[in-house]
C-alpha cells in the first residue's frame, strides 16, 4: 500500500495502518462507540453485488444539540482525490480553510477539511 513515492512516507502510512488495525479496528465498539461516537461503513451496490467504498469513524467532541448530540460533522480527504471532493460537496459539506495534517513531525500529508452543520 503506497500513498507516496517516498519510501519514508510509505513507511509512515504502513505504520498508521498497522496501528489502526491492531487498536481502533480491532475493537470498533470500544474505540468508537463507547465514547458516544460511531463507525459508519459506506457501501455501493451494482448488478446485485455490494462492496465497501469507504469508512468513517465518528468521534464525539462535545455534548451539543442535534440528533444523538451531534450538531456538525467534518470529513477530511486528500486534496488530490477529486471524486471524494465532489462527493463531499454533493452531500452538502462545505470546504473550510483550515490546514489539516495527518502528521506534525515530520509535517506531512495536508488534507482538505469539509464541514456540515446538522
TrEMBL record:
Enumerate the UniProt keywords alphabetically. Answer: Transferase
InterPro entries recorded: NAT_camello-type
What is a single molecular function from GO for this protein? N-acetyltransferase activity
Superkingdom of origin: Eukaryota
Tell me the PANTHER family matching this sequence: GNAT FAMILY N-ACETYLTRANSFERASE (PTHR13947), LD18367P (PTHR13947:SF37)
Q: What is this protein called?
A: N-acetyltransferase domain-containing protein
Phylogenetic lineage? Eukaryota, Sar, Stramenopiles, Oomycota, Peronosporomycetes
